Amino acid sequence: MRSVLLAAAATLPLLLGGPARAGGVSDATVTAVTDCIRAAAALHRVPPGVIAVLLAVEGGSIGRTSGNTNGTVDIGPMQINEIHLPAIARRWGTSVPAAREALLNNFCANVEAGAWILRTALDSAGGDFWEGVGRYHSRTEVYKDRYLRQVLTQVLRLRDRASSTGAGRTP
C-alpha cells in the first residue's frame, strides 16, 4: 500500500491544481494528502490504496469541474458527480452550495466524499469488491467495465513506477 501511495504522490501537482515542480512535491504536501486519504479510508473502511488509484484514474483537481455527456458535472480531484450533492450536504449538515464549494476547493472534503461514495458502492455490490469499485463510476455495465479496465491499467502503472523508483522498499 505504501508504494501505491508514494507512486500516486507523483501525480499530486495535477491533483492539487498546480504545475508540476522539478523534484516533485514537498514532503509536507505528500504528508497532508496521505493523511487525508488515510483518514477518509479509515472513516469509511475502504483501502487507502484504492482511493489513491481512483484519484489517479479520475484525474480531477482542486478548483476544477468537468462536464459529462449526460449534462451533469464532476467536481474536484475524485470527480464527485453533482447528483451526490444533496446527500453529501445532508451528511455534512450543510447547504448544497456549501457542499459544492467544499468539494471543489477542499482536497480532504473531496476525498472524504469520494470514500463515502465508494463505501456506498461497495455495500451495494453484495460483497463483490470489484463490482463495488466499478459502481463508484457507474452502475451501467459498459461504463462500469470500461472504468474497471482504467483502474487496472492505473494499478499496473503505479506498480511499475513504484518498482522502478524503489518506492515502498525497506532498507
From TrEMBL:
<dbReference type="InterPro" id="IPR008258">
    <property type="entry name" value="Transglycosylase_SLT_dom_1"/>
</dbReference>
<comment type="similarity">
    <text>Belongs to the virb1 family.</text>
</comment>
<keyword id="KW-0732">Signal</keyword>
<dbReference type="Pfam" id="PF01464">
    <property type="entry name" value="SLT"/>
</dbReference>
<feature type="domain" description="Transglycosylase SLT">
    <location>
        <begin position="35"/>
        <end position="137"/>
    </location>
</feature>
<feature type="signal peptide">
    <location>
        <begin position="1"/>
        <end position="22"/>
    </location>
</feature>
<dbReference type="InterPro" id="IPR023346">
    <property type="entry name" value="Lysozyme-like_dom_sf"/>
</dbReference>
<protein>
    <recommendedName>
        <fullName>Transglycosylase SLT domain-containing protein</fullName>
    </recommendedName>
</protein>
<keyword id="KW-0614">Plasmid</keyword>
